[in-house]
Amino acid sequence: MKLIMRNYRCDSDYRRIRDFLRDVFFKNNYWERSWHVNRFDYWRWHGIENMGHGRLETDVFIWETPDKNIAAVLNREGPGSVWLQIHPQYRTQELEEEMINVAAEHLTVPAGNGQQRHHIWVDPDDNLRLSILKRLGYTKSARVEYQRRRSMADSIIEVSVADGYTVRALGDEDELPSRSWASWRAFHPKEPDEAYQGWEWYHNIQRAPLYRRDLDIVATVPDGEVAAFSTVWFDKITGTGVFEPVGTVPEHQRRGLARAVMTEGLKRLKGLGAQFAYVGSWNDATHALYGDRLGFNDYIILNAWEKRMPVESGN
Predict the structure, then answer these.
(1) Contact, 157 vs 295, CB < 8 A?
(2) CATH code matching the domain that covers 166-274, chosen among 3.30.420.10, 3.40.630.30, 3.40.1280.10, 3.30.2270.10
(3) Closest among 188, 282, 174 to 220, alpha carbons compared
(4) Domain locations in the chain?
(5) Which class is 4-145+303-310 in CATH?
(6) How far apart are CA 183 and CA 88, in angstroms?
(7) Label partner for 264 (CA 20 to 30 A): which of 12, 64, 97, 300?
(8) Smallest Cα–Cα separation from 151: which of 33, 288, 278, 289?
(9) What is the pLDDT of residues 170-217, one digit of tens each?
């Protein structure tokens, strides 16, 4: 079957891609071999709107069947980070190679010394994609992503909250400055305070289709300041929830707060009837927290394969 490639065009494509990702998620037996619908939302509303990581119209490519069914989607995430979302029914070597070549043409970033680069994520057991990447000159990088899953049928271990802290849902707009500041401190601990650019960006988080304030969990100190947080995204169509992000302000770390807010999130997901919950991990500390302590013991590993190319004249 000849597939037709085109760029992302409009909001209807956004809705169709979300439906496509859900369908592929089901076909892949609830494993994140393609993006969970929340990840596409999060890139759209946080990555693009808040961080400037791309544009839908230039960084999303759609392959359709002659009767307009989506067969595959190619998109970036962070700078140089490329993802292939492919419906298993339409996956072929020809399609994989075409998507990889489109990524090389359109989704690179400057790498210095007259070069451009990008990396493509791949399951180490995906022999088809690996063989194509190797043949086209890609090399395995040090970047690794663990995509962790736990069944909500498993028990949720109770945890005690450290003295002086309260775990609850995020409050109204008056609490957004504190929530935003906590995020800045958690993820930019070495940045000067003057680099902080305010809290209004959080409105975009709350515009994401799956956002629910009752699933935006925080741990606060007695004066109300946010010390730790975990936003949970529940998709009732797939019956799944995703934890993204999870963070703790540096001076409040090592007190079990991340575990406490995530445990509260798991309880709320279970109350909503979720079947599975997901979280990503990248280092020993998060592997231990999510796996050993919170039961996200099932996972697949993705590796980033990188290619560097000379900058072509006119690019």
Answers:
(1) yes
(2) 3.40.630.30
(3) 174
(4) 4-145+303-310, 166-274
(5) alpha beta
(6) 37
(7) 300
(8) 278
(9) 999 999 999 999 999 999 999 999 999 999 999 999 999 999 999 999
> Model confidence over 250-266: pLDDT tens digits?
999 999 999 999 999 99
Integer Cα distance of 50 and 82 in angstroms: 19
H-assigned helices in the chain: 11-27, 37-42, 56-59, 93-106, 127-135, 176-187, 202-207, 257-271, 284-287
Contact assessment for residue 274 and residue 152, using Cβ atoms and an 8 Å cutoff: yes
Q: How far apart are CA 148 and CA 277, in angstroms?
A: 8
The Cα–Cα gap between 104 and 283 comes to 28
Pairing of strands 70-76, 298-310: unpaired
What tokens appear for 135 in the block? 């043949």
What 3-state class would DSSP assign to 108? coil
Nearest-10 crossing angle of helices 127-135, 93-106: 50
Give me the residue label for tokens 């399609």.
Answer: 95
Long-range contacts of 126-131 (CB under 8 A, 24+ apart): 128/91, 128/93, 128/96, 129/84, 129/96, 130/305
What burial letters (b/e) apply to 180-215, b meaning 16+ CB within 10 Å? bbbbbbbeeeeeeeeeeeebebbebbeebebbeeeb
Which among 75, 54, 71 is positioned nearest to 7, based on CA atoms? 75
What Rg, from alpha-carbon coordinates, does the chain have?
Answer: 20
Using alpha carbons, list the distances in angstroms from residue 119 to 42, 140, 216, 226, 310: 20, 9, 32, 35, 15
Start-to-end Cα distance in the chain: 33
